[in-house]
Sequence to fold (404 residues):
Amino acid sequence: MSDINKVVLAYSGGLDTSIILKWLQDVYHCEVVTFTADLGQGEEIEPARTKAQAMGIKEIYIEDLREEFARDYVFPMFRANAIYEGEYLLGTSIARPLIAKRLIDIANETGAKAISHGATGKGNDQVRFELGAYALRPDIHIIAPWREWELTSRQSLLDYAEKHGIPVEMKHGKTSPYSMDANLLHISYEGRVLEDPWAEPEEAMWRWSVSPENAPDKATYIELTYQQGDIVELDGVACSPATVMEQLNKIGGANGIGRLDIVENRYVGMKSRGCYETPAGTIMLKAHRAIESLTLDREVAHLKDELMPRYASLIYNGYWWSPEREMLQTMINASQANVNGKVRLKLYKGNVIVVGRESTTDSLFDESIATFEEDGGAYNQKDAAGFIKLNALRMRIAAAKRLK
Fold:
């Protein structure tokens, strides 16, 4: 501990990290540098400055990273149509490599030898933060208080906060708050009633979306324009990556889109039940697959689908900065060169319905061949007979032997 004179703390100003800040000061007797990132969580982050100053912090970093997060992390991930275990859109996972990067950047700028985070010893985030940090600075020292201290429950944190005069938001009597994480892509909920996988989530828990039952009775139509696999316009208006996600979250949430309740397999080995709201991500995934259906070669599309679970697992497990993820990303980016065009969507009571797609320059859909009407000789149906017989040859040989 005597070698660590300065620590950069990923600091939200919430319960866990406020307690960690005090704990680092008392246990490590070191200077703490706080880093607070605006990733689009929808809450004011400036109060973190006031809280940090009140605890004697001199070096305080508060940064708006929304555009970098959307442009350099979320959009590249959605080019791959990444989804973990068939449902989870990786909202928490994709934010961790950017936070790890900035923690290391700030440590280098301030001369800190260590970084610290509030991830628990039971979760995935400790792995994500630390794999990213070590990949970017192999000599960094990492302090993970949840693996060191004796505060083993939410209630013990509340008691610690009360003892040391640390204010706690969302404190309802002696009830622990949900464990939540939010950014442009999603908001997640864990703990409380959700620890029973049979229990239905409380309606009051949801923050970004109305229930599908209470969504408008009239459908909302939107149009997304793509260039090289990325959204560049919403309803004909040019939008930055962060702006389009903010708008899609509002539109999707108002139509009851993006709620998810899953039990997932954590990298550390346990199963965990969590709930998520991902309005923008739900819309983006549906729309991107729609524009790819017009513009991607069949075998390229199928290869992407085969590789996607591996790519998604790499992100979920914290390997964003790994050479294998970067190799896959290069291939995925190359596949998007001709993914250009427009997708029209109907949003209705929790549903995202593709009602139109077009690509005037890169569509591989040929109506003259696909038509059920007269095709003018563009496709000779007799050719199919030889195609079928050649593909059936091995099965015909096997069947003939079996029937003998």
Notes: Residues 194 and 273 are 6 Å apart (CA to CA). The longest strand covers residues 31-38.
